[in-house]
């Protein structure tokens, strides 16, 4: 039972355009969401997070939107750069899960020059 | 000055062998984790230690035994390796065990069991 799903295994975008990565979750107890970026042969690195008390969090070119009623979050990258090409993982945790993060299966983003 | 380092990076071994993976973090964090990334690319938690105390122990075969000699180290020992153990194993650390502090991951150990 996959509680965090990223339905798009891959996304290809032109440099300078917006990249939108999507994530859906099923567990209503999740109240904290994170995005991680992963380059080949490296570990995931933290990108941005959002608490369920907010619907938007912005950090430079990265913005995460949370729609609690739809149990959906998205990561917007604008403008996209070739260096953003990586696998992006969505992750969630909740009060009852403590430090146990549940990850999605990842979306491979390719930004073409 | 790698924050979370794990060794070895690659590990190729035969079925039935026993092997260990070591992890060290120099971030001063009090919580450490082992995650497994399987062939379908899902990252799944295996174990978590907070101040050397085991706080998360997912449904993992008891052939897997974590050991935390101190807050900066978390090792993973695997007995009687099986083909299905082939995966990438990631060590991670965080400050606190609330889930609100981002995890810092090592670069992974790719284990191949033949």
Summary of the model, kept short:
The complex is a heterodimer of chains A (113) and B (114). Chain A is an all-beta fold and 113 residues long. Chain A has no helices and 11 strands.
Describe this structure in words.
The complex is a heterodimer of chains A (113) and B (114). Helix content of chain A is 0%, strand content 56%. By secondary structure, chain A is mainly beta. In chain A, β9 and β10 form a beta hairpin. Chain B has 114 residues and is an all-beta fold. Helix content of chain B is 0%, strand content 55%. The mean pLDDT of chain B is 92. The chains are: A mainly beta (113), B mainly beta (114).
Strand content of chain A: over 45%
Q: Decide which structural class fits the backbone of chain A.
A: mainly beta
Q: Which blocks of ≥5 consecutive residues of chain B have pLDDT under 50? A: none
Class inferred from helices and paired strands of chain B: mainly beta
Number of E strands of chain A: 11
Gyration radius of chain A, rounded: 13 Å
What is the count of DSSP helices of chain A, taking H or I runs of 4+ residues? 0
Helix content of chain A: under 10%
- End-to-end separation of chain A in angstroms reads 38 Å
Strand percentage of chain B: over 45%
The main sheet of chain A comes to:
6 strands, mixed
Per DSSP E runs of 2 or more residues, the count of β-strands of chain B stands at 11
């Amino acid at each position: 039972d996959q509680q965090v799903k990223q339905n798009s295994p891959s996304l290809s975008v032109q440099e300078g355009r917006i990249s939108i990565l999507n994530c859906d979750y099923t567990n209503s107890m999740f109240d904290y969401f994170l995005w991680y970026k992963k380059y080949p042969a490296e570990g995931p690195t933290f990108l941005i997070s959002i608490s369920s008390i907010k619907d938007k969090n912005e950090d430079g070119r990265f913005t995460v939107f949370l729609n609690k009623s739809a149990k959906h979050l998205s990561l917007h990258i604008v403008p996209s750069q070739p260096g953003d090409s990586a696998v992006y993982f969505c992750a969630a945790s909740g009060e009852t899960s403590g430090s146990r993060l549940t990850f999605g299966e990842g979306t491979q983003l390719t930004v073409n020059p | 000055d790698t924050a979370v380092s794990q060794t070895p990076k690659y590990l190729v071994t035969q079925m039935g062998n026993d092997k260990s993976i070591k992890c060290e973090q120099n971030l001063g964090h009090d919580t450490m984790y082992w995650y497994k990334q399987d062939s379908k690319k899902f990252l799944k938690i295996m174990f978590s230690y907070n101040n050397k105390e085991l706080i998360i122990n997912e449904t993992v075969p008891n052939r897997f035994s974590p050991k935390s000699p101190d807050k900066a180290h978390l090792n993973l020992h695997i007995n009687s390796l099986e083909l299905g153990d082939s995966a990438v194993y990631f060590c991670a650390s965080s400050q606190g065990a609330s889930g609100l502090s981002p995890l810092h991951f090592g670069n992974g150990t790719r284990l191949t069991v033949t």
